[in-house]
Amino acid sequence: MTADQINSAVAAFREQEMTKVHAKVNSTPFWRQNERLAAELQALDARTERYRASLGVPDDQPEVTQSIAQDQADEPPVPTVKPGAK
Q1: Domain segments of the chain: what residues?
Q2: Which residues lie closer than 8 Å to 41 by C-beta, 6 or more apart?
Q3: 3 state DSSP class of 64
Q4: Which residues lie within the region annotated Disordered (predicted)?
């Protein structure tokens, strides 16, 4: 899948899930709807990220996780100093 196809699939997934979120929020008493909406949106964000990860890396984009790990390994360690030490 290309990056555009993945983004399109994720957008469709999110739109489908939002209808479920709205149904849950609308069935909640009005004085608790804001709390429920916030909780449901956080859960939706997590589900969306898991769905995006399940689609894999786009074919038209190189995998960058290895280069990021290499960049982090190349960084020198930061020395720490205890408070009051001379």
Answers
A1: 3-55
A2: 21
A3: coil
A4: 53-86
Contact 29, 21 (CB under 8 A): no
What's the N-to-C CA distance of the chain in angstroms?
57
In contact, 21 and 41? CB cutoff 8 Å? yes
Question: Helices H, strands E: what count in the chain?
Answer: 3, 0
Q: Which amino acid is at 2?
A: T
Higher-pLDDT residue of 78 and 54 is 54
Tokens of 86: 């001379």
pLDDT band at 71 (very low <50, low <70, confident <90, very high): low
Please compute the mean of the pLDDT values over residues 31-49 and round it to a whole number. 93
